[in-house]
Amino acid sequence: MFHRIVWAVAAVLVGWFLPVNSLTADDAPWQAGSAAISITPAEPMWMAGYASRNKPSEGIASELFAKAFVFEDPAGQAGAIITLDLISVPRKLRDRVAERVADLHGIPAAAVMLNCSHTHCGPELRFPDSPVEELSPERVQQAVAYSQRLEEQLIQLVGAAKAAAQPSQLVYHRARAGFAMNRRLPSESGYQNSPNPAGPVDHDVPVLKVQTVDGKLSTVLFGYACHNTTLSFYNICGDYAGFAQQELERAHPGTIAMFVMGCGGDQNPYPRGTLELAQRHGITLATAVEAALQTPAIPIVGPLTTALTPVEVAYAAPPSTEEIESRVTSSNPYISRHARRLKAALETSGNLPTIYSTLVQTFQFGDALTLIALPGETVVDYSMRFKRELAGRQVWVAGYSNDVFAYVPSRRVLEEGGYEGGGALVYFTSILHPGPFQADIEERIVSAVQRSLKTCFPMESE
Questions:
Q1: Taking the domains of the chain in order of start, what are their residue ranges?
Q2: Among 58, 148, 256, 304, whose Cα sits 20 to 30 Å from the Cα of 368?
């Protein structure tokens, strides 16, 4: 039920945290609060993530949640991080939520971040002005209604988190988890979606711990770079990320656990395929979070500086009209549907898009932590690159943030080709992509992040 649960933060004492009354107001300079709400569909819905699905959901294996963390430094600079147990963050949803949060709750739109877990066992998200002709009107209307309710609930959620704010200490930790594996296996016929133990992977588990002045744990944000694709059945489920959050909240009653998806575009959980494996991966990740919380603490004092920077990514040359016509008759129904949409766009406007405008976002927490939020289904090369280039800092790189519009390949992945390199674009139905991106997509995104960091950290420009 969509309105089933709303939580404001409560907290309990956990033995390995600081003793009760050990913190003073100076030790806990932040105002911070969080809240959660169930966003589980109230009725069967078509599910997002696998094009092969041919019917709506049939049951609920676990609840889906939206959660919000609101924080403010001593100077009054505020931010909000919203996490969703959903496949995507449509740009329209992000922009509308951020604008309304700014108006109603006084948090700057540039400081509002939406991140999705990318579970493939959640509902579709659609908006009235982005219909897909090949889908039934009833299916589209149901997804539109869900998305509109979601927007209202997220506004309510941020308000609940803000109302729950109290003096708090923010502390950064990190550990590692090992069930993610690169899924781009080279073969004679190209790169296949199959486990590749030699491929790049980011096993970091970044953790932001929030505790109140009496030493109680209130909120834990944690990340991992891995697709939420353990499961492919017809039951609503948050996959491993949902089970990890569930396990942490079970172990620490009253605490809100929030999963932030990393750059897992080319990473899968292995082994995969059963509910038991999803639960096992969730427990594995929760265990890594518990381990992180026992590592040396890095206190976050502030100030908070945020920046939201636009970036245009360019498409490679589109297919010719002759090529489009030949694809219309393809035996692959997804290639054929994509070609028909390209043909219709040409007939309507006379041209195809040459660029896509998206966003990168940065949060600078004093000198202690740099959080980089990237759009799209970013591959692992991005997190590895930023951690390498910003060596000496604590760097948390999140993908799947603010605008999940397509796979975002690195130059390497784009040149290698395959599913993440451009092959997946025919499956996107909410946005019409004419074809792969240009080879400079990585540099465009990295440059935008660098500009954003200079805004957050002016000394970088000197």
A1: 6-309+357-461, 319-353
A2: 256
